[in-house]
Write a structure and sequence with these properties.
Length: 633
């Protein structure tokens, strides 16, 4: 049984090898340049020959016995379906060969050229024609069989293929020890030399213009800040411009143009990775300068602390590990970009100035960030636009701030030139304004007094109304309780008032009420005594610090004098009489002002029952009741 199992396993293995061997090990793929040419361009995307762990000798390239693996390009090494290519940590380290045979090249191009912008780490390109002739096309850095000897150089190179060759094989030697995104990726298109050179030159000019914009924005904002140090937002904008400028210089490879030292490539790559999210941090600090929050300083201290840790980790870690964790740098970029967006949205909600134009200018930048994050994860998509959006944002913001600076400068110069005149003019304007405000304040005070008077007095008699009486009597009651002082309350009711209305009419009745109010105001009352219309023909007099005897005496005097004073007018003279009820706080032992009013009302009822035109005092049930008639108490 064991022998049968072994034979079955061996047979299965041989069958799988027979099926997969043509795919895994096959001749070098061939591309007919004349047939595949479209609009003057030849895309090299598709099947390539591939051999890992060795550099195939150039004298064996044209051999019919040469057998290589087939891979689909563009692609990263780490994504190639080759078993054992990546190590246990998922990172590809080693060296190998890419091959692609091209035929009818002389019929398709006059001077074919290929941009090697999307080739990493170190590479060396050769052309082996069908006759066996070998030509070095170009190289970047130094290829090696170990990480110590390898050197990279991130620079856009243009390979010029032989124009007289009918066919041959493009051979690319690659050594990859430092990047997890090594290999041939991106746009691999064969073009005429003039067209390829124009593309590179156009890209160079555009990026040069963008870097010039960054330099201009940085210098302009620093100059403005030095002239107006109190405008810290100008310094923040200059810092943001400088960081963005650095990111553009490193990510576009311009540093390699001026520092042509391949052995600096690891340092440059790590700086480039740090600069992935540093502009977002500088942008957050810029936005917090325009839209401050309570804990903004603590947030930026924490942010720069984390940024320092990221720099330290990047400097210590191997380059291969740094590139393998590209997602972490991109996640930090997205996180700080989100914080920037939330800061702008908060400014919009609070209706802060500058929030709207910041949102308009930052929206394309944030979309570009998302685009570049996606491009960083795909081998076949390499359209990076963040630099373009970044410098567009910088240009817009710099122009806005410079316009404000110029306006402020013009205002300052104008004020300096006409300071005395402006101060005098403003002083006159302020004085007139203050006078106007004073008049308006006085008018408002008079209006308030009138409103208060209307609210507190009876519109007919001009005496205090019931609501005001309730409020003032409660206050007087509490004061009398607190200081243990007497408090007397007198209720007077005009006798037979209904008969006056029925006989002479209500207008005459109103005239009588007005007469009585005037009569009471003319009586010898103190300023602190309160006279109010209680309702109908009932009036109330509240006498502070007045005992029962004093109140009875005053009420009796009022009763006598009122009967002696007729009401004269466009009608026969009318003699008015009134009944009075008196109650006093201490003698009645009232518990509230309402109870005191009730006691006075009971005394008034007694006066009416006893014939009207008299004064009656409230006494407790156990005491003798006292009743007086006009002329006697």
């Amino acid at each position: 049984m064991t022998v049968f199992k072994n034979l079955t396993r061996l047979g299965t293995t041989l069958l799988l090898w027979a099926l997969l061997e043509p795919v895994l090990a096959a001749p070098v793929p061939t591309l007919n340049a004349e047939a595949a040419l479209q609009d003057g361009e030849l895309s090299l995307a598709g099947s390539w020959g591939f051999s890992w762990g060795r550099w195939l000798p150039l004298d064996q390239i044209g051999s019919a016995d040469l057998s290589v693996d087939r891979v689909e390009l563009p692609n990263y090494l780490v994504d190639l379906p080759i078993e054992g290519l990546a190590g246990r940590d998922g990172i590809v380290r080693g060296h190998g060969t890419y091959l692609l045979r091209l035929t009818h090249l002389d019929a398709a191009f006059v001077r074919p050229a290929l941009s090697m912008r999307y080739a990493r780490d170190a590479w060396q390109a050769w052309w082996v024609d069908d006759a066996g002739a070998v030509q070095l096309l170009g190289q970047s850095g130094q290829i090696a069989e170990n990480a110590e000897d390898q050197a990279m150089r991130h620079k856009a190179s243009l390979l010029i293929l032989p124009s007289t060759s009918q066919g041959g094989t493009l051979v690319v030697y690659l050594s990859a020890y430092h990047s997890n995104h090594s290999g041939l990726y991106g746009d691999f298109t064969l073009r005429e030399y003039d067209s390829a050179f124009r593309l590179i030159l156009t890209d160079l000019l555009v990026r040069t213009f963008l870097i010039a914009v960054g330099i201009y924005a940085t210098i302009q904002n620093m100059v403005f800040f030095l002239r107006r140090p109190q405008e810290t937002t100008l310094l923040l904008l200059a810092l943001f411009s400088g960081v963005s400028l650095s990111r553009a210089a490193f990510s576009s490879g311009y540093v390699d143009y001026f520092i042509a030292q391949p052995y600096w490539s690891i340092f440059f790559y790590k700086v480039e990775y740090i600069l992935i999210f540093w502009p977002a941090i500088a942008g957050l600090q810029l936005l917090l300068g325009f839209f401050p929050v309570r804990s903004g300083r603590q947030l930026m201290r924490l942010t720069y602390g984390l940024f320092a840790l990221a720099i330290l980790a990047t400097a210590i870690a191997p380059m291969s590990s740094v590139t393998a964790h590209l997602w972490a740098y991109q996640l930090a970029l997205l996180f700080f970009t989100l914080l920037c967006l939330l800061t702008i949205i908060r400014g919009l909600i609070l209706r802060l100035p500058d929030a709207r134009h910041f949102l308009l200018s930052a929206t394309p930048l944030m979309m570009a960030v998302i685009n570049d994050v996606i491009a960083g994860q795909l081998a076949s998509y390499n359209l990076y636009v963040t630099e373009y959006a970044l410098f567009l944002f910088l240009f817009v913001q710099t122009q806005i701030q410079s316009a404000r600076f110029v306006d402020a400068l013009k205002t300052s110069e104008h004020l300096s030139a006409h300071l005395g005149e402006e101060v005098a003019l403003k002083t006159r304007q302020l004085r007139l304004h203050n006078e106007l405000l004073t008049e308006q304040a006085e008018d408002l005070s008079h209006q308030n007094d009138e409103i208060k008077l209307i609210a507190e007095t009876d519109h007919l008699t001009g005496l205090l109304n019931r609501q005001t009486l309730d409020k003032l009597s409660e206050l007087q009651f509490q004061l009398a309780i607190g200081y243990r002082q007497p408090l007397a309350l007198v209720i007077m009711d005009l006798d037979h008032f209904k008969a006056i209305n029925d006989t002479h009419g209500h207008l005459v009745g109103d005239e009588c009420l007005i007469f009585v109010a005037s009569f009471l105001r003319g009586y010898k009352l103190r300023k602190r005594d309160i006279i109010a219309r209680f309702g109908g023909e009932e009036l109330v007099i509240l006498l502070a610090d007045t005992d029962l005897d004093m109140a009875l005496s005053m009420a009796q005097d009022l009763c006598v004098n009122l009967a002696k004073t007729p009401v004269r007018g466009d009608h026969p003279d009318i003699t008015l009489t009134a009944s009075f009820g008196v109650a006093e706080l201490i003698s009645s032992r009232a518990n509230s002002v309402h109870q005191l009013i009730g006691f006075a009302d009971q005394a008034l009822y007694q006066a009416k029952q006893r014939g009207r035109n008299r004064v009656s005092a409230y006494t407790r049930p156990a005491a003798d009741r006292r009743s007086t008639t006009p002329g006697a108490v």
